[in-house]
Amino acid sequence: RKPKQNKHKITNRLNSITIIIIITHVDIASKQSMMDDIQEEQQRRGGDHENESSNNDNKSSLSNQSDNSDATGKIFHGLKRESRKILNEVENKRIRWMRYAVFAFLILSAAAVCFVVFYYIRDAERDDFDDTFDSQAGRILQLFHQSVDETLQAIDSLSTSTTAFALSTGATFPNVTMPNFEMLGCNARILSKAQYFILAPLVTDATRAGWEAYVDSNKEHFFNSLSADTLQIRNQDVRLNYAPQRRGLDETETPLDGGVQRSMQTDALSQLMQFSSSIRRITGTSLEDQPYGTGPYLPMWQLSPVLPVPGLLNTNFLSNPILTEALAQAIKSSQAVVGNVNLGPDLEDGRPAAGADVFSRFLKLGQFRHDEDEFLHDPVSPVLYPVFNNFTQQREVVGMLVANIYWRLHFKDALSDEVKGIVCVIENTFNQTFSFLLNDNDVVYIGPDDHHESKYDSKVFEADIAAYINEAKSAATESYTSAGLDQAYSNYKIRVYPTSSMEDEFITSEPVLYTVIICLVFVFTSSVFMLYDCLVERRQRIVMDRAVKSGAVVSSLFPENIQDRLYSEQGMAKNRRSGSGEKGGSSSDHGFALSRRRLLNESPWANNSSGNNNQSSDHRLATAPIADKFE
């Protein structure tokens, strides 16, 4: 069985060789078409001798041409292989650079898009933050100044009521006592957000004796006012379900005329509990009668709320070192003056301040009595508002209304759910600075000094309080008798800053998140492209490997001289075809017919018994049959 199998293998291989020779020889046989055309043309022109001579010449020429074609074919075949190699290298290089260019374009595009998206979203958030802060800061300044102006208007209304009462009764200052001052003062305190009100008439050395006589004969007004104020407080606490407020100065309650309670712990408090018709002055922590000839004087006369301390009456305000200069400026300018800031009953070093106990008692009996701890150490400033003798342009200052205002309360109207983390800094010409934090619906006193974050220096909104109020005056906001706000003695400024907590509400991680998402999209797209490129390159490599293997099979079947002969004859056929063009039909069809005849004549399996056929073959071909090359 093995010899039979080998015989079949040999037969199959010979059949394969025959088929390959037929296919490859079809194109090579077309070269003979030009030679046949030349022979037919010579037969028509000449005789037998001429034809024989011409045929010999043609054979010789064709033989020479064949030799030249063999050499040319070898050169052509070498050049073609070299050029094909160079072309492949160039094409591979171009493809490689194109691939690099595409990858670079994808990377640059991804970087550009991520950059644009990140900065666009981040800038949008910053713009939103800036716009919101600008809007809130402008609103805070407007409402703050509006609140301060309303405070001044409320004080002006009480001053105007005092002047109107004196004019209506024919009373002459300083001998004027406002009826129901505790009631009017309570209303003014609510409207102005003030801690207390004190009415102090202006007394000169010329009017001092008459004033002291007036005080001695009208001292009962104090006890009547104290009783009325105490009753109103108790009734209000019951109505509002508050615990009753005590009127004493300490835990020991001793009845006094009119239900007044007192304490005898210190000499100073003992003096405060003693009524005096003489003008007294403050000397350190005690009170003493002020000598004559040291006027003018501003003795306290009416209070709201009414403290159970009769010794406060007739105490000269101008002897208070904290208010001396401010009161003198208010009398001189006939305008309202805002004094320096007081941080409550304790000084910064923790020691009790002068009048600390009086300050606490005003707080315990006023409208903030149920939130005492909240206001005990808040910054307050005295507002000194003049009282005039008439309503004409020639009016004169005849008294002074003294009020204590809490700065924190003037930010309350500016609060809203949108206000989150805004620092307001107030400073004055006394080198005092204090800060508040506005957050949601609450105002928190941060402490003295400027507590804003330095990185927001450029975003500040600021205004001069006195200048703002004076510039905003109009018929809709200013009363006939408004005294205006003095700017020569004291000047307050307010600055508004954002905080990091407010910025965090707007500056989020969304820019980074969207940038990462877009970057991942580009990475995924690039990965798909790279995968596709790798698959295409793998497919091309497989096709090339198969082509190389097929070429190797052909090379193994044909000797090198056969390959050279095929390439040379193919080059000659192309040259003849390009020179002669189409003649009598398609050159490819004609070449195919001739190639088939040549194949039959040149094939080693052809029938060589006919001599005419051999002569015809010798006549037609100037070269040896291609099968001879296998020998």
Question: Would you summarize the structure shown here?
Answer:
This protein has 16 helices and 14 strands. The chain is an alpha+beta fold.
Set down the secondary structure blueprint.
Elements: H1 2-29, H2 32-45, H3 48-169, H4 181-192, E1 194-201, H5 208-217, H6 220-239, E2 254-256, E3 260-262, H7 267-272, E4 280-283, E5 286-289, E6 302-304, H8 324-333, E7 337-338, H9 356-365, H10 372-375, E8 380-388, E9 397-406, E10 420-428, E11 433-439, E12 442-448, E13 461-464, H11 465-471, E14 492-498, H12 500-504, H13 510-557, H14 560-580, H15 587-602, H16 611-620
Antiparallel strand pairs: 1-6, 1-9, 2-3, 4-5, 7-8, 8-9, 10-11, 10-14, 11-12, 13-14
Helix pairs in contact: 1-14, 1-15, 2-3, 3-4, 3-13, 3-14
Please name the defining characteristics of this protein:
alpha+beta, 631 residues, rod-shaped, single chain
Describe this structure in words.
With 631 residues, this protein is an alpha+beta fold. It is built from 16 helices and 14 strands. The chain has helices at residues 2-29, 32-45, 48-169, 181-192, 208-217, 220-239, 267-272, 324-333, 356-365, 372-375, 465-471, 500-504, 510-557, 560-580, 587-602, 611-620; strands spanning 194-201, 254-256, 260-262, 280-283, 286-289, 302-304, 337-338, 380-388, 397-406, 420-428, 433-439, 442-448, 461-464, 492-498. The strands form four sheets. Strands 6-1-9-8-7 form a five-stranded antiparallel β-sheet, with helices on both faces. The chain has a five-stranded antiparallel β-sheet with strand order 12-11-10-14-13. Helix 3 (48-169) runs antiparallel to helix 4, helix 3 (48-169) packs antiparallel against helix 13 (510-557) and helix 3 (48-169) packs across helix 14. The protein is rod-shaped. Mean pLDDT is 75; it is low at 22-31, 248-268, 347-352, 581-624 and 626-631.
